[in-house]
């Protein structure tokens, strides 16, 4: 498709988008669907719908209608730095302008309608950054505001069970948005919660480990309020090993899976290696019946950092060490990659991209690269 034709088509898309926003047709459409699909259970809001060029994450009707070869700037919602791919620092929500808040237009519409519309059965809410260096501005939990109240109202709804929440926390470990206690108060209202996945932007986009204070897990996760919790996921967290162990001891016996993604240990030399050893020694998981032992998966950034790409240790690879006599798959103080031969490389935006975690020479021998 010629560049001039791409530009003309792109300009028409922008005009259509501006028209939709002016008329608030996007909010009206969501309300229409919410009222007419009583069996709707999951709502997902993401800035990554377009994926990468020619590989969209979601093939929406609009994206499917794009002409073949349409080359365009990939749009990213929320507060995002598209030039340097660095983490944007969140602004205080109480001081933010309407234009700034409009960066989260879709998220705010969803919060407002899910909290105000009485007759719906949405039990799962996902604000999912898909590993892009962004998320909901967590400063909405710094002081009382409409968005914080709406979030709390959704958590309190009968039947609400699953929350996936990506938060824009900035790149350093100043956890201002959690210090007020409003976040903990809100999520503690979800008494029927079974699945929780939280991610931050701590250290996201940085090539160097951070030495800021770890996130105060006990002030964020009211595990005693979730007696039916079966899945816990933490992504891009700065963690103190002892505090995480204490949190896992508090987890209900219903916990069946734990996902740890891109975890940093600013003051623990053994990092993930030491964490697995502590989990094997300090938790009672090894003593449980096989069907009751939580599965543990670990995702790491790998040697070549790129949004959406990661190395993941399977639950079997972790379980061999955690519950058996196998080798620890993690490598000393490294939080970027497991030992060679352990884990698989994946790409969130390219489903066919899978390759073993081995060096370039082995990849050539396997015929994966030339």
TrEMBL record:
InterPro entries xrefs: LRR_dom_sf (IPR032675)
Gene source species: Penicillium antarcticum
Name of this chain's protein: F-box domain-containing protein
Highest taxon, organism lineage: Eukaryota
